[in-house]
Fold this sequence. Notes:
alpha+beta; NADH Oxidase; 4-stranded antiparallel β-sheet; 7 helices; 36% helix
Amino acid sequence: MIHRRRDVRGEFTGEPIAPEVLDRVLGAAHAAPSVGLTQPWDFVLVSRRDVRQRFRDHVEGERAEFAGTLDGERAERFSGIRVEGVLQASLGVVVTYDATRGAPDVLGRHTIADAGLYSVCLAIQNLWLAATAEGLGLGWVSFYREEFLTDLLGIPDGVRPVAWLCLGPVSHLEQVPDLERHGWRRRRPLEQAVHHERWGSDTT
């Protein structure tokens, strides 16, 4: 599942997700480890077309703003990369982070303030792998402003939207990730990411 998982953009079919499948996928996310057992996540399920259209319009504006910062070959490559499947996916799943859950006595967050945010990312990874195992695709949309999404979904003050996830059945999963296929960036070999004892060490 780890190696089959893809960040899906253009392969969604729009077919509905069976309720029992959605429950299993969300259950896998909710089973993630969390700092101090705070489970600081919530899941907002967005199916309404008008809400998704408003979010997609916002994403398109942010995409255009980013594209305006690129020049030459980089701009040309980006123009062919799709960044979202908000309307094509069956469902939007917005995952949030509530730093007040379990506070002030959060066991394990005393020295690492972001440990709760890391916990939310673990829940997202669980969700992603479970979706892949169920034959679903998932795409993480990151071209948005937090304040826009907070207002759009009525998220309470102090709760952060961490991810808008596009979820649903797909025609297929690509063998090679989109950004590699479009030549945006190449995957680093493992040996370049491994250090022994100290940063920058060699393997001998």
